[in-house]
Amino acid sequence: MELADPDYPEFGRWADTTNSWGIDNPDVIYTLAAIRGDATYRVSGDRGSAHYLDIQVHSPHFCEAPDYRINSNIDSRTLTCDGDGAFELILGAEPHEGNWLYIDPDAESLCVRQVFLDWENERPANLVIERVDAPYPPLSPLSEADVRARGERLVRWLDKAGTYWDHMCKLSLNSEPNTMRFTPLAESAWGGFQNQAYGMGNFRCRPDEAVILEYTPPTAHYWSFGLGNWYWETVNWFCRQSSLNNHQARLDADGTFRAVISHRDPGVPNWLDTGGHTHGTVNGRLLLADGLPAPTLRVVPLDRVRDHLPAATAHVTPKERTEQLRRRRRAAHLRNRH
Questions:
Q1: Has residue 141 been placed in a domain?
Q2: Phi and psi (nearest 5°) for 43?
Q3: Which of 95, 131, 158, 213 is the most exposed place for a label (fewest CB within 10 A)?
Q4: CA distance 101 to 89
Q5: How many domains in the chain?
Q6: What pLDDT, in 10s, does the model give residues 48-72?
């Protein structure tokens, strides 16, 4: 409702520490702005130092999910910036020198994703979007027809997208317990994060149990695993270690990532905290990977978990965990306040 003016657009968050849906990624800052297909726009500012940045155009609006498509996108591999990280990107139907994204007549929204590996040291972008040649001040106030159109879009989003996410939740939750698989890129290319494969599965874990997730990472620009609840809300990731990416995770000597999903801290580096949920989703992400691995999950008694891990697995004391989570929370909030 509030980020819906294509003549005077602004970037706003559609998922953060206070608003989780669609199994949002703890490593990502998501922002969205309204555009229209017959106008030209300029996105400019400081690219920041996030590990990866992607900008994509949707036709029609993202809130028409799942009935939209990705019109075009550009990412940090090809985005040209100056030595200080400043850049300018033009969006329009006509080609433009430098950074340019095509928008077709049906385009209605622009999405920016910033992927962070090192939460404590990578810095978010500082971006502004403006319609080229927009008059100031605006020529007319917000009309009744504008408000009606925004309200109708909201209703469609709650109906269509809500139904779609409910279906996706049930696919994960109702599959065989403690299993997951990565979907081919083609299955998410219509509207997901471009070049990213998604892993979908579930965990079932009683308080006296642990689920050991094993996975051999392929060569990839980025990968992560995280836990979600019944409603595809990400388990509190800023106060709990409910997710790990390839910078945060610790691999064993054989190159395998072994994570322990459990309610209580098992005292190992790769703990994935269930947040009290005995049944939830396990979600993986692979960005620019050279293959799709097959993770395995198996249930073991919590008090015997070390019998099922390599002998060299490090011990994490309660004091060390407290400090780790304090720093995690601090880094998350400092990053997301921008």
A1: no
A2: -110, 125
A3: 95
A4: 7
A5: 2
A6: 999 999 999 999 999 998 899 999 9
